[in-house]
Amino acid sequence: MSMTLMKAVGLTRYLPIDREDSLMDVQVEKPAARGRDLLVRVQAISVNPVDVKVRSPKERVEAEPRVLGWDVAGIVVEAGEDATLFEPGDEVYYAGSIVRPGGNSEFHLVDERIVGRKPRSLDFAEAAALPLTTITAWESLFDRLGISREASGNEGRNLLIIGAAGGVGSIATQLAAAAGLTVIGTASRPETVRWVKELGAAHTISHREPLVPQLRQIGFDTVDYILCLNSTELHWAQMAEAIAPQGRICSIVETSEPLNLNLLKDKSATFSWELMFTRSRFGTPDMIEQHRLLNEVADRVDAGKLRTTVTKRLSPINAATLKEAHALIETGSTIGKIVIAN
């Protein structure tokens, strides 16, 4: 039986992005949908720090090209026999799974339980900017920090977002402001300060200076919640000092050194991690929550209550444009999201 091939961008060695073979245009086998999987024709993708992290130099060599990419917007072309949520022709968006091939390819296979309907008011590129950062922000705020989704439950409460202008911060700022929290976002350049305020932050401070004196200067002795999206260990002592008694801290950035959790003990403060791949990686019983939250986000976008965070568009989906996107992410100073569409 002959194998059907599709175009993809992959790697066999983990190299610096300026190397010609760091990402390559390749042909791989086109998959077929089985079980609860959907086969999606990829219309647009976006690039995240996780892509850069996975691709970063290491010794390993792949026998077959490894395809990255964890943000897709596209059209369902095939649904597995157990799929009930979508059918061919549906327009969808999602972030995929870290333990399966990524979406930088012509077609992509994904479990329907982590897929949402594409917001109708957005084009595919605008939709592709949302899933990974939105799931991360949503789970951080509502699952890990335990913030109420209703504004009435957050009266008088505040949230410090460290790294508010990036992909996750751009969504978290909007979600938290809509949930009635007073958002203090960190931003260190005039253009990022403008961006964060535009998205709903009431105040901005700089993450390049100690946080506590700046918080006091704008009238906050402590904060109820902290979402750390930038260098956990660098900000750890300041977060421990700034958090209110019985407050909660969540981070998405792993550390190279252990954190001293004793700093939180006297305040009975809570620390939790967020990784949006946890549900899909471990097939948790509540995996379908990502389907539900992406649908709710689509409704909010279509109602004009949440905006996409695209700041740069590239085209087409190939190795050259993906290398350009990876290089931009590696500068560490991107605002919002970079998307690539055909």
What this model shows, in words?
There is one protein chain. The chain is of the alpha/beta class and 342 residues long. The protein has 2 domains: 5-130 and 278-341, Medium-chain alcohol dehydrogenases, catalytic domain (Quinone Oxidoreductase, Chain A, domain 1), CATH 3.90.180.10; 136-273, 3-Layer(aba) Sandwich (Rossmann fold), CATH 3.40.50. It contains 10 helices and 16 strands. Strands 3, 5, 6, 7, 8, 15 and 16 form a 7-stranded mixed β-sheet that branches. A 6-stranded parallel β-sheet has the order 11-10-9-12-13-14, with helices on both faces. Strand 15, helix 10 (319-330) and strand 16 (337-341) form a beta-alpha-beta unit. Helix 3 packs across helix 4 (167-178) and helix 3 (131-144) crosses helix 9. The longest helix is centred in the middle third of the chain and has 14 residues, at 131-144.
What is shown here, in short?
With 342 residues, the chain is α/β, with parallel strands linked by helices. It has ten helices and 16 strands.
CATH topology type of the largest domain: Quinone Oxidoreductase, Chain A, domain 1
Oligomerization status of the protein chains: single chain
How many H/I helices?
10
Instruction: Specify the CATH homologous superfamily of the largest domain.
Output: Medium-chain alcohol dehydrogenases, catalytic domain
Major sheet description: 7 strands, mixed
Order of helices and strands: EEEHEEEEEHHEHEHEHEHEEHHEHE
Counted up, domains total 2
Terminal-residue CA separation: 31 Å
Q: Average pLDDT, to the nearest integer?
A: 96
